[in-house]
Each structure stands twice: as structure tokens, then as C-alpha cells.
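ligand=2-phosphoglycolic acid
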Amino acid sequence: MCYPFFGMNEGRFDPLKKSGLFEEMSWKMKIYRAKDYEAMSVKAASLLFAQVMLEPRSVLGLATGSTPIGMYRCLVEWYRAGRLDFGDVTTINLDEYCGLAPDDPQSYASFMRENLFRHVNVKGEDVHIPNGLAKDAKAECARYDEIICRSGGIDMQVLGIGHNGHIGFNEPGDCFQKDTHCVALSDSTIAANRRFFERESDVPRRAYTVGIRTIMRARRVLVLASGLQKAAIVKEAFWGPVTPRVPASILQFHGDVTLLCDDEALSLV
Ligand code: PGA
């Protein structure tokens, strides 16, 4: 375990040091290093395992993408071995493409079903994902925020990080968007997600995402990053300035963040 605010880039956070906020923030931000993707996945699953063991009624904020697939695989394995029970867990997914039905194979609802939900005993009514087919986007965002609010808030939020620093689909911009919103995906996100679709024109251009306030209100945040292609953004987000141009950088202000990376993703810090 090491601490991002000590040793490296000392001086950048001087104003915070003076205010005392520096110590308050820094000791809580944990970084765990894993030798490779598999090892990272086991560590990530272990943190979720502990969360659910200790608080069976946990509200888990879940992410899609390539990064958490290995973590879900471990959780399914441990569930099958009888070590884990999702019967009282509530899940709240970060995001969903606009225009895709829940049974569309490219939807995040399908992703979650295939990688986790259909293999474990989480109850259907306790699984929440924005409805990509909602007619009224504003009403859908309000409905989702209401669900999050009624759940009592997220106990552990799992996040991947986009090459451009996005978390959920909170894309780089001039300000942090607080609540669930419908977002125009950036060109770099469309290009990154192209690999999951037959043609680039099939990649949805818009998506629902929970807002930064929801993520920042999560009691614990677990950020996963794997591979050399994430090294630059990991450095920028956690060792650089806090700015809406790099949405993940806001996590430097969260009181309980764990950054869990493989060696390659930490290779620039
Ligand atoms: P990835 O996506 O896990 O597929 O790299 C991460 C993200 O875009 O949040």
C-alpha cells in the first residue's frame, strides 16, 4: 500500500497542507498494487466479498466495461462455492446506453446479467440500471436518483476509469454534473467502445449516467485500472490537479477511496 500525496509531486498540495485538509484527505486514500489483471480481479472481488459478508444488506454501485469482468468472475465462483450470499444485496449500476433495450446484447443490462446477475441470487427487484428505452429522459434521470435516494445511498461504489478520465459516463467538461443525466458520449469514448459493436455507427451516441454527487456520496469507492493503456490517465487523475476536464480527479476529495491497479496501470507513478 502506498499513499499518492506523499513523496511524489510534493508541493502541489501545499495549500491543502496548510489547511490541515491534506492530512485528512491523504491518509484515507489507499493504493493497492497487483501484479497483473488476474491478481487485481481477485483483490477487487475480495473487497466486495468483505463488504457483503460484513453488511449483507449492502448497496453496491456496479460498473461495466472490460476491467471488472475478472472481479465478477471471482464473485460468481465464490457464490457457487457457497461462500457468498447476494440475497439481501441491492445493486445500482452506473450507466446505460440510451436507445438500447435491456435485452439488447450490447446493453449494460445484458452485460450485468451475463457477467453477474444470472449466476447469483440477487433479487430482480433489487437490481437497478437506467432504462435505455425511457421515452422521457428527464423523468428517467429523476426516477433513478429517487431509487438511489430511497436505497439509502451506495455503500461501495466500483469504478473503472475511461482513457479520458471519465467515471461512469461523466465525460470531461467544464463542470462536474451532480445528478443522473443523459450525456453525449465523447469521440474518444465512442472510439473506445467501438470494439463491442459491429460498426462504429452502431455505438450509441448518448447514455444515462449517475452524477458525480452520487459517486462522491458513496461511503467507499473502489477504482480499478489495468494495463499500460490506463497508466497515463491513472497518473493524471490521482496525481494531477482536480478538474472536471479529468472527472475521476474529483475522487481525490473523497474520504474513502481505494485505487486498485495492476503493475502496468501504475507504471508511470
Ligand atoms: P474499460 O472501461 O473497463 O472497458 O476500460 C472503463 C470505463 O470506460 O469506465
